From TrEMBL:
<feature type="domain" description="DUF4371">
    <location>
        <begin position="5"/>
        <end position="170"/>
    </location>
</feature>
<protein>
    <submittedName>
        <fullName>Zinc finger MYM-type protein 1-like</fullName>
    </submittedName>
</protein>
<dbReference type="InterPro" id="IPR025398">
    <property type="entry name" value="DUF4371"/>
</dbReference>
<dbReference type="InterPro" id="IPR012337">
    <property type="entry name" value="RNaseH-like_sf"/>
</dbReference>
<dbReference type="Pfam" id="PF14291">
    <property type="entry name" value="DUF4371"/>
</dbReference>
Length: 563
């Protein structure tokens, strides 16, 4: 282990690193290394070979460490199993490739333990077949091995891939066969961003975001081009703007589209002028090869097209409507009803997006950029379009006996309105309505179980359909569930009071009762009891010590109070 040129593996290398700061561990490792060297020397002298370590036990071999890890794993699983008991629970399931290109699936349990909600990672399993049936068998094998009842699964949460959410062959369909009342929950933040991805399948949207991604990679792929970018940032940027770089667009990083778009086209401090200036410098510089110059010219001309600017401002409006909802759905303290209402509000806002307003804002943006280019003294050939160009429409050949002819939209603004704007808005609204249609009723039912909404149960003002889904899923009579909620909501305020408030009242009540009992006791005291007490007291005093303690004498105490 002293040879620094040999990689001993993660565990041993970390052990050596820790030993540099721990004297006891350092001494233990030194003794183990010394004993190993002595044993090897003895074996060489005897001219014997041995694959084992004989009586040398160091407890740092990979076999021992793996056994320790497996023991810890089994202990943790046993503890989780004991906490779960035989109660209902939900599962979270997902898979991904590790660095060794092996598909690994994680199984997490969510359950209730002593009024606390627990989320525990239970297993990481190798996936050999990603079909819904195979994943179900994988889960079932794991459950059977650890004696977990599959029928106790009341909820499952995983992504929206077809092998997961398929109605007939998806994993959730096989789980429903075991428990038909189990609920499949698809992450709402994931759903919303998939709606945005559906909208970006439009041809104009693909061109826009593909263009933005190429802009980013054009500068980042070459250090020489990146130096030009940094110099233009220093000359034209102010404050934090000097540190900005173009955002690459990732398939799974949904926010990257919004960030890439707004950094280039949104606001007075956008990077539009910086990009055009850097591209223009590359086009006119002799330091770059012809390929770079050609691509820079193409990107610069594309950036100045009004079609790109108009499409960008359309999606800025879309992101402004859906962005707050997306952020809220990813927050930790999410209120389900509030999230659902925000989704409904987003659908309404998207329907209210005005095309004429977008056109006006795009034209104003183009004019502002032209004014800035004039102030920066850039090349006079750089002109940002503020109108859509007229496109010649081709007419199909018409046969002799045909009476009708094809109708073409000649006005480019009207053409953009029909082919891009309306398609984008309609696709987005339909995706929202389709993807967010599940689990509406149960979300509404859950709201009445929150303490802040108990007033509706107190006043008997619950809708007739309220709690019906919950009663069905829990196999509880609907009327009984409503009645119990009504009763619990009335006593909840007293139960939820602080401990000091409740115990103080109990102490005060006990003091009042004690005083009342003492008063009744002395009022009911008759002479016979008094005489008997005196006689007994006198007899006792004769046999006791001559030093009579009046403070502890019950007779003296009674006389002091009654006289």
């Amino acid at each position: 282990m002293n040879d620094v040129n040999i990689n001993r593996g993660n565990f041993l290398e970390l052990l050596k690193f820790t030993a540099e700061r721990d004297a006891i561990l350092r001494q233990y490792l030194d003794n183990a290394i010394l004993s190993s060297k002595k044993r090897k020397l003895n074996m060489d002298q005897r001219q014997k070979n041995s694959k084992g370590r004989g009586s040398l036990v160091t407890l740092v071999s990979k076999t021992t460490v793996n056994k320790v890890i497996e023991g810890i794993l089994e202990t943790m699983r046993k503890h989780i199993r004991e906490e779960m008991g035989d109660q209902h629970f939900s599962i979270q399931f997902d898979s991904t490739q590790d660095i060794g290109a092996t598909d690994q699936a994680t199984i997490c349990f969510r359950y209730l333990n002593n009024t606390d909600i627990k989320e525990r990672l239970f297993a990481v399993i190798k996936v050999e077949d990603s079909a819904g049936k195979s994943l179900y068998e994988l889960l079932k094998t794991c459950f059977d091995k650890h004696n977990i009842n599959f029928k106790n699964v009341i909820g499952e949460s995983f992504d929206g891939a077809s092998n997961m959410r398929g109605e007939f062959n998806g994993l959730q369909s096989f789980i429903k066969q075991q428990n038909e009342n189990s609920i499949y929950v698809w992450c709402y933040a994931h759903i919303l961003n998939l709606c945005i991805c559906d909208t970006c399948d439009n041809l104009a949207a693909k061109n826009l975001f593909g263009f933005l991604n190429r802009l980013s990679t054009f500068f980042s792929d070459s250090y020489k081009r990146m130096d030009i970018w940094k110099k233009n940032q220093e000359n034209l940027g102010v404050g934090v703007k000097k540190l900005r770089k173009l955002q690459k667009i990732g398939e799974t990083r949904w926010w990257s589209r919004e960030k890439a778009l707004k950094w280039v086209f949104d606001g007075e401090d956008c990077l539009y002028t910086t990009i055009v200036s850097a591209l223009d410098f590359i086009c006119s510089s002799k330091k770059f090869d012809q390929k770079s110059i050609y691509e820079a010219t193409s990107l610069k001309n594309k950036l100045c097209e009004f079609q790109v600017i108009l499409t960008a401002h359309l999606f800025i409006k879309v992101f402004d409507s859906a962005g707050p909802t997306s952020s809220y759905l990813q927050s930790s303290n999410l209120d389900l009803l509030a999230g659902w209402l925000m989704v409904e509000n987003t659908i309404d806002e998207i329907g209210k997006i005005n095309f004429d307003t977008i056109v006006v804002e795009a034209e104003k943006f183009s004019q502002n950029m032209n004014d800035k280019f004039t102030n920066f003294e850039l090349n006079d050939s750089i002109v940002v379009e503020d109108k859509l160009p007229l496109i010649r429409s081709r007419h199909k050949k018409r046969n002799y006996d045909e009476m009708c002819s094809d109708e073409h939209i000649i006005n480019p603004i009207d053409k953009f309105r029909v082919e891009v704007f309306q398609c984008t808005i309609d696709q987005l609204r339909s995706s929202f309505i389709q993807r967010f249609s599940s689990n509406r009723e149960i979300i509404a039912d859950i709201q009445y179980l929150l303490p802040k909404n108990f007033q509706y149960a107190k006043d008997n003002s619950l809708p007739e359909s309220a709690l019906k889904i919950l009663s069905k899923l829990s196999s509880i009579n609907h009327q009984k569930l409503v009645s119990e909620l009504n009763h619990f909501s009335k006593i909840y305020d007293n139960i939820a009071k602080p401990l000091n408030s409740n115990t103080s009242k109990m102490y005060n009540d006990d003091d009042d009762d004690m005083f009342q009992d003492n008063e009744e006791f002395f009022l009911d005291w008759d002479k016979n009891d008094e005489m008997n007490l005196e006689v007994k007291g006198c007899e006792k005093s004769k046999t006791s010590n001559n030093n009579h303690n009046t403070k502890s004498c019950l007779i003296c105490l009674q006389k002091l109070i009654t006289n």
